[in-house]
Design goal:
Largest sheet: 7 strands, mixed
Radius of gyration: 14 Å
Strand content: over 45%
Structural class: mainly beta
Number of strands: 11
Order of helices and strands: EEEEEEEEEEE
């Protein structure tokens, strides 16, 4: 029902910046939560940041003050501005959308690689 397409990943030096974008299409409810998760090699997928249609945000402690999530509710897009990137930020970043009663319906994008290295 829902497709998520990420873009903006790439290679960046420590201290640099990247901006990830995600576009959702399909049957999108007016109330939902969109966000970003990441998965590094050998590790489980973890929450990076989420943003609801009501404006509520949630950030991982490791990215607070460095990453900023934003969205356009009308266009069903979400972006992640990543500043002061660190090598430990290296991961595949996945766009996520949750909707429906109790947010039981979850959708994932294909992922975009972010590599932070000198």
């Amino acid at each position: 029902q829902v497709q998520l397409v990420e873009s903006g990943g790439g290679l960046v030096q420590p201290g640099g910046s990247l901006r990830l974008s995600c576009a959702a299409s399909g049957t999108i409810f007016s109330v939902n939560v969109m966000g970003w998760y990441r998965q590094a090699p050998g590790k489980q997928r973890e929450l990076v940041a989420t943003l609801g249609t009501d404006g509520s945000t949630n950030y991982a402690d490791s990215v607070k003050g460095r990453f900023t999530i934003s969205r356009d509710n009308a266009k069903n897009t979400v972006s992640l501005q990543m500043n002061s990137l660190k090598p430990e930020d290296t991961a595949v970043y996945y766009c996520n959308l949750r909707q429906g009663t109790y947010y039981t319906r979850t959708y994932w994008g294909q992922g975009t690689q972010v590599t932070v290295s000198s």
